[in-house]
Amino acid sequence: MPHIRMRGLPQEAVCRISETLLDELANLCQVKTDSFTLDWEPSVAFRHGELDKAFVQVEVLWFAKDPEIRHAVEQSIRQAVLAVYSPAKHISIMFMALTPQCYYRDGQHF
User: Where would I find the beta strands (DSSP E) of the chain?
Assistant: First the structure.
């Protein structure tokens, strides 16, 4: 926890992002790097009948953090995407707050 899902990127780009981003986010959120998951969700976007490589979507599922941390995490993710994938022109990063009582890991809720 947190869980990050990336769409609109090649698998290789997400792999490269994983080399440094999770350590950086763990430092910002003051949690262990192993607490994060980073998933690549294959997707293809179209606009006006053509393949559109300009849009990237990132979902962050986590227990809510204060606005300063959320902003810093957004900036880190945005910079990581731009560093490995130049076609990205529009990057949407969506934060979804989870309720600890409704989140179970290995049969235990937080």
Answer: 3-7, 37-41, 46-47, 50-51, 55-62, 90-97, 104-105, 108-109
The reported pLDDT for the residue numbered 109 is 81
CA distance linking residue 52 with residue 46, whole number of Å? 5
CA–CA separation, 19 and 109 (whole Å):
29
Regarding pTM above 0.70, the answer is: yes
In sequence order, the β-bridge partners of residue 109 are 104
DSSP string, 46-77: EETTEE--SEEEEEEEES---HHHHHHHHHHH
Return the H-helix or E-strand segment holding 83: helix 67-84
Nearest partner of 81 among 57, 61, 104, judged by Cα:
57
Residue 67: is its pLDDT beyond 90? yes
Max Cα-Cα span within the chain: 47
The number of CA neighbours under 13 Å toward the Cβ of 75 is 7
Query: Please, what sign has the CA dihedral across residues 37, 43, 46, 50?
Result: positive
Interval 59-65 mean pLDDT? 95
